[in-house]
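Before relying on records like the one below, remember that each one covers exactly one chain. Contacts with other chains, cofactors or solvent are not represented anywhere in the record.
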Amino acid sequence: MRSRFTAMSATALLTASLLVGSASPAHAAPTGCSTWQVGYNVYSKCTGGTGTQAVHVSGVHVNPIWGPYSMDGPRVGVGEISSVNFPGTVQYRGITLYD
């Protein structure tokens, strides 16, 4: 009975160590991020870290029927530029960070 308990304990310990050993590495959100605007185009770029980012813009659409309006640019990696062409007056521009 004792050897069976020992074998079960060893199996549980081995399984736990394999699970911990195979965990994926931690990712850090992008760093060194900035946004800028040229006319109706809004951009974002991050220069460090890992993961991805996307520009986020909100404001008033050029057509008042749409009311408050928001858009997200494409999700891109570090060192790449995410951009949107916002059809109206930009009131807020920011960055959405992903691990």
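DSSP finds one helix and seven strands in the chain.
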